[in-house]
Amino acid sequence: MKHSFLGFAALVATSIAAPALAVPIASMDGEGLSIRATGGEVTATYQGSTASYRNHLFLNGDQFVFDNKSASVGDTVSLGSFDAGTELLFSIFVTNTNRDFFSGAAERNADGVAHARAENDWMEQGTLVSFEDLFNGAFDYNDLSFSLTNTVASDVAPVPVPAAAPLLAGAIGGMFALRRRRSKRS
User: Fold this and answer.
1) Under a CB-based contact definition with an 8 Å cutoff, are residues 88 and 52 in contact?
2) Model-level pTM?
3) Which of 62, 86, 142, 183 could cross-link to 37 by cystine, CB 3.0-4.6 Å?
């Protein structure tokens, strides 16, 4: 009798599901946004995952940031300092399927779909980024979530100012001065 009670208790204990931890997911209008630095040091904080697959998060293709199976919620990593407007390109490598998925424009991904969502002003001026790890997937964006400091998510690329712009302006000004001088002689 004692053994059957212990067996029954063990069965009940294993059948009761542990409460699921809530993983923050960026808002639905954030698919395909680029992540840009606002200037200064950028810090990433792991926010969680409900993925069954193992995902490695990278910055700019080679800087390892987090692994969704070994990181703990709240782990932080300094990503370095970046000038304002610099795009931070994040990617996840899904070890189970040997696939990479990228933040930003959908065209960066083999299935032509945005695999990252981003939300501005999440928890004290931070950007929340959430990834989907399935090719043509469920798109629930709960497979790896992290937040960033000193960043903004945007679909507008900053207009680059070429380094030669001052030279070009000087050359145009010189041409007008030369033209004015020639017209005075005539």
Assistant:
1) no
2) 0.73
3) 86
